[in-house]
Amino acid sequence: xxxxxxxxxxxxxxxxxxxxxxxxxxxxxxxxxxxxxxxxxxxxxxxxxxxxxxxxxxxxxxxxxxxxxxxxxxxxxxxxxxxxxxxxxxxxxxxxxxxxxxxxxxxxxxxxxxxxxxxxxxxxxxxxxxxxxxxxxxxxxxxxxxxxxxxxxxxxxxxxxxxxxxxxxxxxxxxxxxxxxxxxxxxxxxxxxxxxxxxxxxxxxxxxxxxxxxxxxxxxxxxxxxxxxxxxxxxxxxxxxxxxxxxxxxxxxxxxxxxxxxxxxxxxxxxxxxxxxxxxxxxxxxxxxxxxxxxxxxxxxxxxxxxxxxxxxxxxxxxxxxxxxxxxxxxxxxxxxxxxxxxxxxxxxxxxxxxxxxxxxxxxxxxxxxxxxxxxxxxxxxxxxxxxxxxxxxxxxxxxxxxxxxxxxxxxxxxxxxxxxxxxxxxxxxxxxxxxxxxxxxxxxxxxxxxxxxxxxxxxxxxxxxxxxxxxxxxxxxxxxxxxxxxxxxxxxxxxxxxxxxxxx
Length: 505
Prior knowledge:
disordered C terminus, alpha+beta, Kinase-like_dom_sf, kinase, Phosphorylase Kinase, domain 1, five-stranded antiparallel sheet, two-stranded antiparallel ribbon, elongated, Transferase(Phosphotransferase), domain 1, Recoverin, domain 1, 3 domains, non-specific serine/threonine protein kinase, disordered N terminus, EC 2.7.11.1, 13 strands
């Protein structure tokens, strides 16, 4: 278990922080490191009690070795942290906090067993049980519970804003003990379409958009991605010896999936973490989507997956799109494999209450009502169903649902090569003669519309040559609609999240 920063409210400009970092580093280089000047109060007889063996691994905070207890021959793991590297007081506090956390959680079946802490003039030694890293299955169980908290919060228009291990505790010492969220001190309500402009959170887990003062519910998912990375490999994906340095890492760098133990971790687990640690929040998995990922889903129940607030938002948005963009999204949806639609199938099943394979007007109304910040009028629910219902039979089937619920930015970000092929395949459903352009005649044949096609062409035909190229078609898929239809507006923030969880400290 690594040491964690305490909760902070980040109220400084990142550029100013970088300047302070350089000054701080220059000053600290002239002084004796704080670690060398600190008596931690730990035992001083490590060399008498233990014999260090081979190196197991290393991270930002030190090296971990196998060691042998000279008294009984038991093998233990020893994390050795060099005092010279504890340049600033915050580094010393990190080590003290880690030891304190291990002491307090000693005896829990789901936490590494702590034996003791030692120090000498050069090092601090943390002695733990050997081979105690979480298995992937253990990690998936923990992460699934965190994601359920986040998804439920987001449905209530609430962003947690401080997802980190310290804010989740096990209810009991039983092996199957549920995890409980414990701290909503930095949480806040947000209206649909709005963003937080303040910088709040904990340095190790803060999302890039938080540092850019433009964050929303997606920042909770980033934090869970950081937690998952740590659970799987024992290191943080973004680290520096100062908070300012950590912020720079979060903004500029990508997590390392090459160092041990990542080569031995499953492809599914790596795919999951990568899709959570996407810097563009639009392309990041939502909390509900993440619950449908195969790595988290294994051993879980589909009924545990709540309705995804982003799916509801996409369906509301679909009604605003021009007819051409609706046609384009339906064509794109038809190119996606069933396996890649697992998360949307889960969402469809969650909305299809009677399990008859179609979403009725009443089922759509019930689903949209779960997004508490939006209280849509019945007429708007009908308008949404009519926009999605392409065959006008009064219900929404899965194929129609997919077209309205797609996350286009994710498709492009997660696999750019597949996106190129997929968007071209969608384009060719219109480009009948394969000359590289969609003409008004081809558009009329595809849509079945009568009268002038010019209004449909207007949005996509950027160069005004009277036809749509592949690049213009891709741009249409990426961009929001230019339709002038009225946008449904939220009716204020939701009710408080009362009695949502039994909090335990």
